[in-house]
Amino acid sequence: MQSFDVIALKPIADINPSYVEVNFNNACNLKCSYCSPQFSSTWHQEVEKHGAYPTSKPHNDPEHFQGERRPIPNKDPNPWREAFWRWWPDLYKDLKHFRMTGGEPLMDPNTYRVFDYVLENAKPDLHLNVTSNFSVDDKLFNKYIGYVKRLCEGEQIEHFMQFVSLDTWGKQAEYIRYGLDFEKCISRVEQFIKDVPYRSSLTFIITMNNLNIVNLKKLLEYILYLRKTYTKTYQRVWFDTPLLYTPEWQSMQILPNSYSICLEECIEYMNNNLDEMHGFKDYEVLKMQRDLAWMIKGTDDVERKREDFYKFFNEHDRRRGTNFEETFPQMREFWNDCKYRSISRRL
To answer: How far is CA 239 from the centre of its chain?
Structure first.
């Protein structure tokens, strides 16, 4: 990696970064429970219609997203996006890693504008990365896969990394990431791996929160299946487990210690299936152990955060026609405790 003597640089010196991550707009078809109008247009539409969620401090209050905080709709002129495209030809020369997030990049015409530029200006040292929920309509997904196949043929780029946001398994994954089509998502995971066999990998982004851990082991079992099935000469399937800190009522730290068994079982499963190529890696186990240690550490003001947990998801169920108790039967005792605290507070 090239280094610079920052002190010796003139204050007006322009340096092109080799790694850039961009969010072109907030257009998204999902309303993930821990997201906000800044990153999801459907979240923005919901709070504009129904208002803030009734947590102790009103959550995703539309009054907060005014002025400079107002997300710029995709169809409106966006000076930041326009400035980016003026910079892009110069930036591209020095770029090594470029990642597009969202919103949902597959819905964004700027994603395909980037792809067209790369196809016209091959860059064999470029690592191109996209984060998606893999739940867009079929026509759009097929368009996307067609582009990625072309990018990964020959020497257009060095590598394409597909990040897929998926926190757990089945209906619980759909509840956390409202609007997700779980079966469609995992079907497209395998389609991507099979249809783009060269210069590509796929990484699951598993956001560690208090709703995903009760069924997390099933997702790990699926990841192990994918590695054993599709990894031949290099690792095709990866995953990461970043911790969720906000909103604080969805943090693992507000759970009773008894829930630590969920992560302990995951760690045991990973340790029983260690393998450099087709199993889990020791550093992946260490990350999960880190997550467990952080969870057990706990947090302050737990009663208020548990009250907010009930207030938020009770309103979530009312607005979105979901049912927490039916979706998370393993968490019924915790739910009732949070409900009792919330109701008692009002009496």
So the answer is: 11
User: What residues contact residue 126 under an 8 Å CB cut-off, 6+ apart?
Assistant: 95, 96, 97, 98, 118, 157, 158
How far apart are alpha carbons 27 and 40 in whole angstroms?
Answer: 6
Q: How many other β-carbons are positioned within 10 Å of the β-carbon of residue 13?
A: 9
Show the CA angle centred on residue 74, arms to residues 107 and 50, nearest 5°: 95
End-to-end CA distance of the chain: give it in Å, rounded: 62
Distance (Å, whole) CA 81 – CA 93: 19
Residues in the chain, total: 347
Residue pair 146/177 in contact (Cβ under 8 Å)? The answer is: no
Distance between CA atoms of residues 43 and 258, nearest Å: 33
**Pairwise CA distance, residues 261 & 213, whole Å:** 10
Those residues whose C-beta lies under 8 Å from the C-beta of residue 316, and which sit 6 or more positions away, are 33, 53, 178, 322, 324
pLDDT tens for the chain, 347 residues: list them: 455 555 566 666 678 999 999 999 999 999 999 999 999 999 999 999 999 999 999 999 999 888 878 888 777 888 999 999 999 999 999 999 999 999 999 999 999 999 999 999 999 999 999 999 999 999 999 999 999 999 999 899 999 999 999 999 999 999 999 999 999 999 999 999 999 999 999 999 999 999 999 999 999 999 999 999 999 999 999 999 999 999 999 999 999 999 999 999 999 999 999 999 999 999 999 999 999 999 999 999 999 999 999 999 999 999 999 999 999 999 999 999 999 988 877 65
Phi, psi dihedral angles at 109 (to 5 degrees): -60, -25
